[in-house]
Design brief:
Length: 174
Amino acid sequence: MSRKDEDRLLHGLYYYRESIDEEFTATSDQILWLAAHSYVEGTGWYKGDDLQSFDSSVVPIEIRKKLLMSKFELPLRYLHYRRLIKLARAGDDVVAISVTFAGADRAIRLHTLPGRMEVWYQERKDGFLGLVTTIAVSLITALVTVYVAERFHRNADYPPRLIYEIQPKSPPVL
């Protein structure tokens, strides 16, 4: 289980209906399909009249339990724990899910690359990597600003102002 799996699940769950607190049911095979596909493919989870699903019958029974635990139960429980979704068991391998307001907000930010970058930065801004990223962005911004100002000043029609005189002035006469 990784944060990427959870984010892909949340993104697909929200963009299935694009509504907040509207409950729907999904099977474990449908959630497995969603966990196995990217953000772009996850928006096409609903095709025809039914949700797309993974055929878990091809997976051996010993591995199927671990697969369901790592890609179905744990990510959904964690999303429920973080209050991004509301989760209720509706059967053996069926769950009733609704996306909360906080989950919809996160899913909307995950829909674009700049939004995913913002989520990544917000989660890591307190650590060393966040500090290094902040310093790097500040340095790059300052360098670009100086470069643009120099280019603008160089292309100006008026001569540059002299700050220092080359020869000292004579002392005032009293």
